[in-house]
Design brief:
Order of helices and strands: HEEHH
Distance between the termini: 26 Å
Strand content: 5-15%
Number of helices: 3
Strand order of the largest sheet: 1-2
Number of domains: 1
Structural class: mainly alpha
Helix content: 40-55%
Length: about 90
C-alpha cells in the first residue's frame, strides 16, 4: 500500500487502517525509513494488561534504563538487517 502526503505534509491513512490500528501513532525515524507505531487509547492500561505484576519492586529509573538499552539493541539490529537487505537487493 502506498500513500502520499498533501501540500501541508499531512499523511492520510485509509479507513481500514484507522479502524484496525486507531488514529494515534508514534513516528519512529530510522536512517532509511519511518515507521508508524499505533498508540493504544489507554497506553498505561495496555502495558498493565501485557505485563501484569512483573514489574513489582523495580524503580522507574531501572525500568527506564532497561527500556532504553533494549530499544537501542532493537534499533541496531533493525539497522543491521536493513543494511543486509540493501546489500542483498544490490547483488
Amino acid at each position: 500500500m502506498s500513500v502520499e502526503t498533501d501540500s501541508h505534509g499531512r499523511l492520510y491513512l485509509p479507513a481500514e487502517l484507522r479502524d484496525k490500528y486507531g488514529e494515534r501513532f508514534h513516528v519512529i525515524e530510522y536512517e532509511d525509513r519511518i515507521e508508524l507505531i499505533p498508540i493504544e487509547e489507554n497506553p498505561l492500561e495496555a502495558v498493565r494488561d501485557e505485563i501484569g505484576d512483573s514489574l513489582e519492586g523495580e524503580s522507574r529509573e531501572e525500568l527506564r534504563a532497561e527500556a532504553l538499552q533494549r530499544a537501542k539493541q532493537e534499533a541496531e539490529a533493525d539497522l543491521e538487517q536493513a543494511k543486509r537487505d540493501a546489500r542483498d537487493a544490490a547483488e
